[in-house]
Amino acid sequence: MEEAIKERTQKTATKLFGAGIKMDPPYLLWREFDKDLANDFSRFITGNLYSRTVLTLAERQMVACAMLVALRATAELKLHLNAALNVDCDKKKLAETIFQAATYAGMPAVNEALAVYKEVLQGRGEWPLE
After folding, report:
1. Burial of 130 (0-12, 13-18, 19+ CB in 10 A)
2. pTM of the full structure
3. How far apart are CA 80 and CA 57, in angstroms?
4. What is the pLDDT of residues 63-93, one digit of tens each?
5. CB 66 within 8 A of CB 80
6. CA-based diameter of the chain, in Å?
7. Could you state, in order of their start, the residue ranges of all structural domains in the chain?
8. At what angle do helices 107-123 and 74-86 cross, to 10 degrees?
9. How far apart are CA 108 and CA 112, in angstroms?
10. What is the Cα 98 distance to its own chain's centre?
């Protein structure tokens, strides 16, 4: 069972974070503090939660991005926007997800998120949107 979770974790992490702009995932920071806890977090988040099939990886990333916009967590948003693009989220739908947050998080959050999204797209050589 443990080996299956480890394999799922690595497979899902590679899909999400294996391409696009180069960023260190939070996992590396976690490991600096506590390797065992970092592995537990990673297995839970990536190996158990993100690998569930009720939502696709693309849908999960859109939800994550919407939450991060509302929280104004721009560093984490950058990581997850890149991951969303890695799992084939539609670029215009991601922009729309950010705009949708205006109702709940306000325009300052939207403006910050759009700037981060533009930076991610530029880093991937995918700007401007068509």
Report:
1. exposed
2. 0.93
3. 11
4. 999 999 999 999 999 999 999 999 999 999 9
5. no
6. 46
7. 2-123
8. 50
9. 6
10. 13
- Mapping DSSP onto H, E and C, the string for the chain reads CHHHHHHHHHHHHHHHHCCCCCCCCHHHHHHHHCHHHHHHHHHHHHHHHCCCCCCCHHHHHHHHHHHHHHHCCHHHHHHHHHHHHHCCCCHHHHHHHHHHCHHHHCHHHHHHHHHHHHHHHHHCCCCCCC
38's tokens: 């970092």
Q: Report which residue type is found at 96.
A: E
CATH for the stretch 2-123:
1.20.1290.10
Task: Please write the tens of the pLDDT for every residue from 50-60.
Answer: 999 999 999 99
Residues 6 or more apart whose CB falls under 8 angstroms from that of 25 comprise 13, 17, 79
Please give the structure tokens belonging to residue 27. Answer: 């996992």
Distance of CA 71 to the CA centre of its chain: 14
Token reading at 79:
């990581």
